[in-house]
Structures are given as C-alpha cells and as structure tokens.
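Hi all, posting the design record for the shared folder.

TITLE: backbone redesign
STEP: 1 of 1
STRUCTURE INPUT:
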C-alpha cells in the first residue's frame, strides 16, 4: 500500500449534481415516472433562472429523456438547449443495467443505443457510469475502452455495501478510492470508487451551523480514501430532487473553508483535475468485482435467483433478438431485402427497459414485475415478427425444386441454424399438409370435410439428397390459419396440420438446410422400431455418453470419450429461505432435505431413432412456509442475517416431474424439470456432483469464461457462496470436466462437500423486497407452475477447446423452421453466407450497422491465449475491404483479404484476423 499524500496542499471539492433514477423499484414505474417529470421541470427552471447552477448529470442513461418527453413533449427544445450547452450531461447508456444478468450483446446494444440517442441532443458523455450496479463483470475495462471511455465510476464490488446502502469500513482491495482496473485481456481503465457512496454530497446545508458540521464530517470521509487533493462529492441520491439552493450552499462552504476550492463540477472536469494531480501509483484491481473480499452478507448476489421466471423470459428474449432475429435479418439483407433497423431497435429498447438492476434482479414490488412480463412479451413478439419476415424472404430464395419429383404433395421446409457453429439437433415444426382458402368459395362445412379426408399415409421426410430422415408425425387435425399479405386483405384458410419432429443433421453455421415431407412408395418404419438409444431398462446411450437412472431418480453419466463416470446427478435439494429478494438466508441449524432417499416413479415416454426420454416423478413432502416468527422479524426490520425464524411444521407436496432426454447427436443429456410450487419461503436446487479434484471452476460471464475460486476468501462469513452465471458453469481437472448449461438459471454454487458439487438454483421463494424498509412482495413466492431446462455435458478437461462450450452455447439458441413450397431459387438447399474458424473463439453476433449498412460480426476469445480468426464471406459482392471495428461499430484498420477460397459451399474472400487473449473482436464487412 502506498503512503497518503501531503494533506497540507490546497484541496478542491468537486460537487457533482445528479439523481440516481431507478425507473421502478419500491414504487411502480408510473409513480416514479411522475416524480421524474417534477424533477426535470424543476431542473429546467433552475437552469433557466441563472448561471450559478452550473450543471447536472442525468444518471448516465438516455431513457430519462424519453420518459420525460413522453409526458412533456413541448419541453424538447428547452431540454436540448441545456444539453447542447453542456449544463445537462447525458449518456453514455440507454439504461443503467445489471451487469451479471444481462448478456454481452445486450450491454453492447445498450451502449450503442445510448450513444445514438444522446447524439440526437448533443454529445454523449464518455463516463463509464455504474453507480449502483450489483458487482461488475471482468470485461468492463475492455468494453469501456472499445467505447472510447477510459474510466469507470462505480459503487460496489471492491468493498462492501451493507444494509440501507451504507458502506463498510473493512475489506478494501484498493489503497484509495481511485484505482486502476484491469480486465482479462489487459485493458486498463481508471476506476473511481464511490467510497462514501454516490450520495456523499447530498443535501449540502446552507445555514452556517449545519454546514460546519456537514463539511467537518464529509471532508474527513473523502480525505480518508482520496489519492489526491481532488475530492469528489456526489450531490444526489436515489430519486433525489435537485438542490436548488446549491449555489448558496457552496458559497457558505467557501466562507467556512477558505483554504479549499469548492466547485460545482462535472465528471469531465473532475477527471481532468484528477489525472493532472496524480502523485501516487494506484493499486491495480484485476478481473471481476464481486465483493469477493468481504463477509459475503451484502453482495446482493441472490437477486440472480429472485423471481426466476423473469430471468428465463430475459434469456429467451435476448436469444431471440441477438441470436435469431438479427442474424436472419442480416441473411435476408444479403439477398437484397431491407434490414429492419427501427423494429429491432424498438424491440431492444423494450427488452432493455427490463434490464435495470432493480428490474431484472427481481428486487422490486410486485407491480413492477407484472409490467416487466408484458415488456418481455412485447419485445419477443417484435422479434418473432421480424424472424417470420426474414425466414419468408430467405426461403423464397432457396432452390427447393429438387423436391418437385415427389409430386404436388411435396411439402418443403427450411431449417435455420443461427448459431456460430455447425449444428445437429432435434427440431420440430407444425406443417400444413393441405389448405383451402376461404376465397375459393367453398362452404365451411365443405372445407371441413375435405380437410378431414386428407390422406396423410404414405409420407416420409427426406433431405435434399432424397435420404429418408426418421421423424415422428402427430396429426393435429383440422386447423384455422391465415396469411397477412402486404398488398391485399388478410387471407384466412382451413388446413390439415401435422407436427413433425426429427433430427436435423449438420446444418451449417449461420446457414440453412432444406427438407421435405413427401409421399413415397418406399416407406421408412424406423421410428416405430426405435431402440438404438436404449441400452437397458433405464439406460440411455449414444456415441458420446451413457446414462443410467437409479431408483431414487438420480442418474449416472459416463463420458465414453474419456471413460470418466459422474454419479448421483440430478438429486434435488430443498431448504428454507428467510431472507428477501436481495439475499438468501437459510434458517439456522436447518438440515437440507433431498430426494436422495425417495423412491421415484420412472417410465420411458419417448423412444425413437433420434431421441429417447424418461419421465421421473418425485412426490416430496416439504414444509409449507416459514414459521410465524418470520412475519414478526420482517415487521421489526430485523436484518436478515440475524433472523431466527425456522420452517413451519405444516407440509405440502411438491411433485417434481423430470424428463431426462438423450438425442443421437447430443454431447450431453438434457434435463427438463417441472413442478407446481405451493410452498413459501424456500429454495429448490438441482445437484450435480463432479468428484473432480480442483480448487477453481469456470463460468460463462459477459464475453468471458471467468475463473473463480471454489473456496471463498478468508473474510467470507456467509455460509452460502452462491454466484452468478450466464449460459453455464464448468468444473474440470486436467483430463475431465463437467459442464452444466442452463436456460435462464443465473445462480449456482460449487459446494464444499468433498465432491465439488455444482448446485443450480431452480426456484427461490420469498415474501419481501428487503433493503431499507418493509415492502411485502407476495408474488415473489412464485406460486404456481414452473419449468426449468439444463444440459449436462462432460468433456476432456478443456471446455473451450473441446465442443462442450459450443454445445452449451447452442443450447441457448432455439432452432428456426419455416414451411415453404417447391420453387427454384438462387440459394442451394444447404447454404450459408459465411464460414469461420478459430481455436477457442466464441461467435457472438451478426447484424447490420444502421448508418453504414455494413455487416458487423463479433467473436470473443474464451481463452487467455492468442488465437487466429479465419473468416470467409461468400455473399458480399463488394470491392471494399473488411475492417476491424469496436463495439460502437466504428471503422478501424482495414483487413487484407485473399481471394479464390473455394469449398463445397463457398467461393469468396478470406480474412485472417489475430484475436488477442480474451479479446472481443468485431469485424465490419462492407456491402
């Protein structure tokens, strides 16, 4: 630790006015919204009245402008005037998001939209602003530098925040409130920790006596941590009205302390002064900021499991936009169709309105989260509309004339793989075998008769080579449907519809493959004889893994490629939770319940050549709730670690239905768990012992595979050591590893049970918000039906180099299928516009830049070693060279290409692009 500077030098107090605006939290959105309108009205009045009130920071999020103008559109010119003259400072974000529960691409879109919206009014601030984020991901420094930002202002992660948003005096990781923060790729930014919180200059007194007392305390507090004589005071707090008498308060401070310069400042001026006055080498903090060196009671990590249904909807919403809608729209754009910029931006904005920490974290009042469900659905509906449009456009260009030989009954369909790797897997489509349009003039009774009489026999599924593809066909009977043409009125029809399930094989990355359901004299009865994946009464096996189910419903998984066996997988655990939406607290001395001693009902429910599935039923008696002590402790505002409540003696039945599935091409076994929760104040987890010898594990985070210690730091006192994840967590040793992938299950723990068990939280049910008062949240008990999905994937010890992480990432992305007709086209029946290779690289996104129209592709290096990205583009038709970009999609250095690359799918340009350790690589491809 370096020594403090000479405190006799002249000091400068930088007072920055702001309000931290949670759009929704302990009040529903519209109630906060109305207070926002009052605040901005007051701010504009104060700025208009004179120059003494210098500036105001609008919390780093441009959505505040949208929210205000939604009610006060006539104030746009007045607001814009003060933004352009620098007195209202805006951006760089669209919203202040949670870091660990939102995807990397969602954070990139957040920065892009924030910059774009800010530029409509003025210049976005280059301030990395994270005042109240519940910890920060390790790649933040790289993301900031790629946005032209060399700093981060933050309040959590390096040292703990406790109850009522106060800051502890223990567990520092930095010598000063200023530090250098280094990301896994080596990027470094100047970090400024709000060591005395982002309200340390709030409500500065004007009267002499109060001001004297105020500054005596506040000067000492800031000097305790500051590395220079530039002292930072944040004049604001949560939903804080502006201090209109601040100029008078500053003048009083100057009278009391003539040796100190008091400035109504702003972040750029403060940063310039701070950099100019730097005297000491600052401490360097590396990687994630998760409050690792604390007692563990104030990390707010269990927001990862509060209202899990929100996280599941968010996972699907993000995947539908970034991994399906954008790539498909880009594909269609290559074929000459307009890219739906405005629609996708609207969908992203709607989704991101659910991404602030008090929203996506599930730590608000019930009304807030009801409205979030509607936003998730709205965003998803836009994504689905764009997907339908793009797939229709692309399918029209696919040559399906190869199926014409099967006659007029041929029903082609296109399977799209929008992930970054070649993919095989189980897909499903509802296909119209026959249609009669209402416009044909046939009576409704006549249409029903004709459709019910459609002969579905004698049909098989074939690929583009005519090979039979095993499938399951379910007759859905007579159905109603309609087309919505752009050039005429809606076109309703009656149809005979079937649901077809099959395994799509080797669909190229970011590409497509055509199939057809046809009438054929050569029948394929392999589905009815499907026992290829059953190796015993309760055994599932393919070329990669073998699975055996035990009497208690747990299963053993053998990795056939390494010979390693994992036992007792899939046991469920249940404990009480007397905490709140922010933090989990298990009742003292409680022994966890598990399904290990139960006898499960087990039966096979699917047996086909492409997949076998078993149903496992547990009827489990668990406590119905906490006892009556919890209600009293909540009303008395007992800090949750100090609570003494236990679980009720009354029980309720939790029936858990597990479907264990193994597909022919699957690298792991898929687990779907459903139950109707009628218990309160409890947590349900799925346990996966690894029995692997390692002190660390790896976890998917934002643009990073983070490495974390299994055992917490010595300061850690919380018995729970739960952590955030995105797509998966991986425990591995030198030659073996086990990945547990999930869909929207963002909380896990590696248990210190001698087996390095991966525990994934399925549901956490609590009844209060927590934090600074009593806010009952009965809907956070999550009563009702729930469904959870995971995939258990063994590997050879290197998930990034093997296919384990690829399998886990592809698990996140739904397949897309569309029915089409027989027609000629410019695209082959198996096609992709791109091909790429790169050891340890993960594909992240494909989209079109709004201004340039260039295609933008992004990868990130999962490993701390340099890799080489080789990219081939087949459909560009341009003489311009590709270029390296950043997350703002700005043009950088040109990339030299080589011509003449030719494969069975490609004949185009090739680029070779170095990817540094843990680097986020964005490439622009001109059109």
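Okay, here is what came back for every position:
SEQUENCE:
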């Amino acid at each position: 630790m370096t020594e403090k500077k000479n405190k006799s030098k002249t000091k400068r107090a930088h007072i920055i006015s702001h309000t931290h605006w949670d759009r929704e939290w302990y009040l529903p959105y519209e109630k906060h919204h109305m207070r926002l309108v009052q605040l901005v009205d007051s701010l504009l009045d104060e700025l208009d009245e004179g120059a003494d009130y210098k500036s105001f920071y609008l919390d780093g999020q441009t959505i505040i402008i949208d929210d205000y103008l939604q009610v006060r559109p006539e104030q746009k010119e007045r607001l814009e005037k003060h933004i352009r003259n620098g007195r209202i400072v805006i951006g760089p974000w669209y919203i202040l998001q949670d870091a660990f529960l939102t995807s990397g691409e969602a954070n990139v879109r957040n920065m892009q939209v924030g910059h774009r919206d800010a530029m409509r009014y003025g210049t976005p601030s280059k301030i990395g602003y994270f005042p109240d984020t519940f910890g920060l991901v390790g790649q933040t420094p790289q993301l900031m530098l790629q946005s032209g930002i060399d700093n981060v202002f933050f309040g959590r992660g390096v040292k703990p925040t406790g109850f009522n948003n106060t800051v502890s005096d223990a567990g520092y990781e930095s010598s000063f409130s200023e530090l250098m923060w280094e990301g896994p790729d080596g990027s470094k930014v100047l970090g400024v920790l709000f060591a005395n919180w982002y309200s340390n200059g709030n409500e500065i007194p004007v009267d002499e006596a109060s001001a004297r007392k105020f500054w005596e305390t506040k000067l000492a507090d800031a000097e305790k941590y500051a590395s220079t004589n530039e002292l930072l005071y944040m004049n604001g707090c949560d939903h804080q009205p502006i201090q209109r008498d601040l100029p008078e308060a500053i003048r009083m401070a100057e009278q009391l302390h003539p040796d100190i310069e008091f400035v109504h400042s702003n972040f750029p001026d403060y940063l310039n002064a701070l950099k100019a006055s730097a005297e000491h080498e600052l401490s360097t903090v590396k990687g994630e900021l998760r409050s690792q060196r604390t007692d563990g009671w104030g990390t707010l990590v269990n927001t990862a499991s509060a209202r899990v249904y929100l996280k599941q909807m968010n996972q699907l919403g993000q995947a539908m936009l970034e991994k399906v809608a954008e790539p498909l729209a880009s594909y269609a754009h290559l074929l000459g169709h307009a890219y739906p910029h405005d629609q996708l931006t609207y969908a992203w904005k709607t989704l991101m309105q659910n991404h602030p920490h008090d929203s996506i974290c599930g730590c608000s009042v019930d009304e807030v989260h009801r409205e979030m469900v509607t936003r998730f659905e709205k965003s998803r509906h836009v994504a689905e509309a764009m997907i339908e449009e793009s797939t229709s456009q692309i399918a029209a260009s696919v040559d399906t004339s190869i199926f014409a030989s099967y006659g007029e009954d041929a029903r082609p369909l296109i399977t799209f793989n929008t992930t970054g790797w070649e993919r095989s897997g189980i897909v499903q489509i509802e296909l119209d075998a026959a249609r009669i349009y209402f416009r044909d003039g046939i009576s409704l009774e006549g249409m029903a008769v004709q459709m019910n009489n459609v002969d579905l026999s004698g049909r098989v599924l074939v690929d583009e080579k005519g090979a039979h593809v095993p499938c399951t066909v379910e007759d859905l009977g007579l159905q109603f449907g309609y087309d919505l043409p752009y050039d005429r009125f809606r076109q309703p029809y009656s149809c005979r519809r079937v649901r077809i399930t099959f395994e799509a094989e080797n669909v190229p990355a970011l590409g497509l493959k055509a199939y057809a359901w046809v009438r054929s004299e050569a029948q394929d009865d392999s589905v009815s004889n499907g026992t290829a994946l059953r190796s015993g009464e309760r055994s599932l096996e393919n070329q990669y893994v073998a699975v055996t189910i035990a009497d208690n419903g747990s299963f053993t998984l053998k990795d056939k490629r390494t010979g390693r066996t994992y036992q007792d997988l899939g046991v469920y655990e249940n404990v009480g939770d007397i905490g709140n939406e922010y933090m989990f607290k298990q009742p003292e001395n409680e022994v966890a319940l598990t399904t290990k001693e139960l006898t499960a009902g087990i039966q096979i429910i699917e047996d086909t050549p492409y997949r076998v599935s078993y149903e496992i039923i547990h009827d489990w008696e668990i406590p119905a709730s906490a006892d009556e002590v919890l209600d009293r402790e909540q009303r008395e505002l007992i800090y949750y670690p100090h609570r003494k409540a236990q679980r009720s003696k009354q029980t309720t039945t939790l029936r858990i239905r597990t479907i264990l599935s193994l597909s022919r091409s699957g690298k792991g076994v898929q687990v779907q768990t459903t139950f109707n929760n009628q218990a309160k104040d409890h947590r349900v987890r799925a346990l996966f012992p690894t029995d692997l010898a390692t002190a660390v594990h790896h976890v998917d985070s934002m643009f990073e595979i983070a490495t974390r210690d299994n055992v917490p730091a010595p300061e850690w006192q919380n018995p729970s050591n739960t952590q955030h994840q995105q797509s998966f967590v991986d425990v591995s040793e030198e030659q073996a590893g086990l990945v547990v992938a999930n869909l929207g299950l963002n909380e896990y723990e590696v248990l210190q049970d001698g087996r390095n068990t991966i525990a994934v939280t399925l549901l956490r049910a609590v009844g209060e918000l927590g934090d600074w008062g009593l806010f009952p949240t009965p809907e956070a008990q999550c009563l009702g039906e729930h469904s959870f999905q995971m995939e258990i994937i063994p590997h050879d010890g290197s998930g990034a180099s093997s296919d384990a992480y690829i399998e886990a990432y592809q698990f996140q992305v739904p397949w897309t299928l569309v029915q089409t007709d027989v027609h000629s086209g410019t695209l082959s029946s198996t096609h992709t516009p791109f091909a790429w290779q790169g050891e340890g690289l993960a594909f992240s996104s494909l989209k079109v830049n709004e201004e340039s129209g260039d295609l933008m592709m992004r990868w990130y290096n999962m490993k701390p070693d340099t890799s080489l990205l080789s990219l081939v583009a087949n459909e560009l038709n341009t003489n311009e060279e590709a270029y390296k970009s950043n997350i703002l999609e700005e043009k950088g250095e040109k990339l030299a290409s080589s011509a003449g690359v030719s494969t069975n799918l490609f004949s185009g340009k090739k680029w070779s692009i170095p990817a540094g350790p843990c680097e986020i690589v964005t490439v622009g491809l001109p059109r």
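COMMENT: The two ends are 53 Å apart (CA to CA).
Let me know if anyone wants the other runs.
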